Amino acid sequence: AVTWSGASQTDVTERVRWGTSNAAVALVSDAGLVSAVEPGGATITALLDGETTTVEVSVRDDTTADEAVAT
């Protein structure tokens, strides 16, 4: 959801376009869910109305599900 300056919110999930710089390392669904594929690094990109934001992700081969934390 997007929070506007007047504190109202709009669900923009269906309008966001997602991408990954390295599908061999991390995939991203149409809903923005990131899935690890193999160890390495990737940049996840979200595009909405001409605005882009990115996040760097690292996939380690020694991480268990209990240790995985998004920052």
Plain-language structure description:
The protein contains no helices and 7 strands. Helix content is 0%, strand content 45%. The chain has a 3-stranded antiparallel β-sheet, with no helix packed on it. A two-stranded antiparallel sheet has the order 1-2.
Q: What general form does the structure show?
A: elongated
**Structural class determined from secondary elements:** mainly beta
Helix segment count? 0
What would you report as the Rg, rounded to the nearest angstrom?
A: 14 Å
Estimated helix fraction: under 10%
Terminal CA distance reads 19 Å
Strand content: over 45%
Record field, number of beta strands: 7
Major sheet strand order: 3-6-7
Catalogue the unreliable spans. Answer: none
Q: Provide the residue-averaged pLDDT.
A: 86
**H/E series, N to C?**
EEEEEEE
Sheet of most strands: 3 strands, antiparallel
Task: For the structure shown, list the relevant keywords.
single chain, 71 residues, mainly beta, 3-stranded antiparallel β-sheet, two-stranded antiparallel sheet, 45% strand, elongated
Could you give the topology of this structure?
Layout: E1 2-3, E2 9-10, E3 17-20, E4 26-28, E5 34-36, E6 40-48, E7 51-59
Antiparallel strand pairs: 1-2, 3-6, 4-5, 6-7
Brief characterization of the structure:
The chain has 71 residues and is an all-beta fold. The chain has strands at 2-3, 9-10, 17-20, 26-28, 34-36, 40-48, 51-59.
